[in-house]
Amino acid sequence: MNTDKLKSLHIERGQKQRPTGVIWTIVIVVILITLGAIYMARPKGGTETRMVKSGAKSPMTSTSTAAVSVAPNTNAATASAKDSVLTVSGYIINRERIELSPRFMGVVTWIGVRKGDVVTNGQVVVLLDDAEYKAHLRQAEGAVANATAALSKAGLDFERISQLNKSDIASKEAFDNTRIAVESARATLKETQGARDVAQAYLDWCTIRSPINGVVLEKLVDPNELVAPQSFGGPRGPSTALIAVADLQDLQVEIDLNEADLSKIFLKQNCRVSPEAYLDKVYEGYVAEIAPEANRAKGTLQIKVQVRKPDKFLTPELSAKVEFLK
Questions:
Q1: How confident is the model over 317-322, as a mean pLDDT?
Q2: Is residue 103 in some structural domain?
Q3: Domain termination residue (choose one: 161, 178, 197)
Q4: Is 133 helix (H, G, I), strand (E, B) or coil?
Q5: Which range of residues forms the domain containing residue 143?
Q6: pTM (global) more than 0.70
Q7: Nearest residue to 314 (alpha-carbon basis) of 219, 220, 244, 247
Q8: Which H or E run includes 237?
Q9: CB-side exposure of 200: number of CA atoms within 13 Å?
């Protein structure tokens, strides 16, 4: 009985070995699961896209935004370059700078303007000492009065001699003498009138007026200073100018153009002007002047660009950029 039970519990040698195929199947499944987990945990290229869509910020999103904001400026610069053949820098200048100078040596008694003041055409800006010229005028007026009286007397003498000459009482010589005296008196009157006009002119020149509507750029003298039409006696001689004025609505840009670029420029060519201090300000202009002679030492030619409708942002002697258009 016991022997039969032991036989029933006995396991054959072939049944003791587990099947190797099942083990390898399990190993392969474990490896595949591990690889899948690693793949799912790895960051994917579309993450940034999903973050942008959901409103989250990331470094990539900031970079993309910056690229988009720069693009319009690049396009604008490209558009500007397409219609421009040359861009150079120059200096803003007044088309006309007028320095008021006296016509004769004199002493300044009054100056009615300061640097930066606005003046109008005909406005009195400086007075010179006129005492001497008032005296000359009175003297000339006295000479005119004497000449007028002499002409009147000569006329009366001529009339009396003419009546006597008709009656053959006065001689022909007396008649001729009185006639010549009348002509001489008339000539003397004209001479004295001319001297009076000269004295009046000198007196008028003591009052100096602005010849244009503009702005006082510089005040060159003070009251009680001696001024003269031209300087002499070295650097400490009399001043030669009183004030300098200019019209700030009549401005140009002066450029020294390289001779290699001269073929790109012509008279009346349209331009764009931008002051270096305010590059966002753009003004229309045109080539107003091309110098007839070059600077051999520099290899340049001077060009002047007239600015249309200038305003307060264009300051003379500051630099400006000029674009010459096709």
A1: 93
A2: no
A3: 197
A4: helix
A5: 130-197
A6: no
A7: 247
A8: none
A9: 8
